[in-house]
User: Which sequence fits this backbone?
């Protein structure tokens, strides 16, 4: 996206993951239609700005909009704290004394 103007809808579209493109296009078409009315012109600019930011984020982190639950589900079961930090009980007692 470096060569295109930042709010170029084609550059934004091409930078999005394929699964997000239809959603962007639907919102873009709504914003274009709304922009025909002077009081709603700002919607198009806001949409392009928002999706330009999203495209930039997707470029570095394709999973940025996943929920924590989705990510944790892929990780499976965790490790008990006492196993991950063997001296956890000692640290906890020490923290309680302070």
Assistant:
């Amino acid at each position: 996206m470096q060569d295109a103007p930042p709010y170029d809808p084609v550059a934004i579209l091409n930078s999005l993951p394929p699964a997000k493109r239809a959603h962007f296009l639907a919102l873009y078409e709504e914003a274009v239609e709304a922009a025909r009315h002077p009081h709603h012109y700002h919607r198009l600019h806001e949409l392009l700005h928002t999706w330009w930011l999203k495209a930039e984020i997707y470029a570095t982190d394709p999973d940025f909009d996943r929920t924590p639950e989705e990510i944790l589900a892929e990780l499976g079961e965790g490790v008990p704290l006492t196993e991950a930090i063997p001296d956890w009980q000692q640290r906890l007692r020490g923290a309680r004394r302070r």
Observations:
- The chain has one domain: 9-97.
